């Protein structure tokens, strides 16, 4: 019991520049979707470098957004960029592990509404388009994220 608690603590000790979070079990299934197979989707996103740029654009846009920016205010942006990169890279079959929390617990009590989710998806679409991700690949990726709505949106 003590050992399990210690292992959980060590596993979830904050990365440099990040704030600590309550201990949780690290597992890829926390990402909320299974990865694509093959390398096609990873290539469509410009490899890991492309994913990094898309995540940065996406987070910047959400923070600056006049409708949903406030929901992100005060949250750990360093952690968010790291875990979102891991999640996207894992789902796109880029060979990453996802070490973040599951979608339900990480969005608990944020009060996110359907309109907020739509806005976030628009920001992601814009980031993918700017980085040259083909439209069909954008839609395949969004289809992986769509079912997460039930864990992310509260009302
Ligand atoms: C399918 C849609 C979404 C995905 C894939 C997603 C993904 C993520 C991930 C990976 C994290 C970090 C988990 C962790 O820290 O362990 C996170 C946190 C967060 N998300 Fe989302 N998210 C989605 C929708 C939304 C929406 C619609 C909003 C609000 C408009 C939102 C606001 C936030 C905020 C504020 C945090 C930080 C929570 C904290 O610091 O405790 N997310 N999200």
UniProtKB/TrEMBL annotation:
Residues binding heme, per UniProt: 107
Record GO terms (molecular function): heme binding; metal ion binding; oxygen binding
Residues spanning the signal sequence: none
InterPro entries to which the protein is assigned, alphabetical: Globin-like_sf, Globin/Proto, Hemoglobin_trunc
Entry keywords, A to Z: Heme, Iron, Metal-binding, Transport
Name of the protein: Group 1 truncated hemoglobin
The organism's taxonomic lineage, starting at the top: Bacteria, Pseudomonadati, Pseudomonadota, Alphaproteobacteria, Sphingomonadales
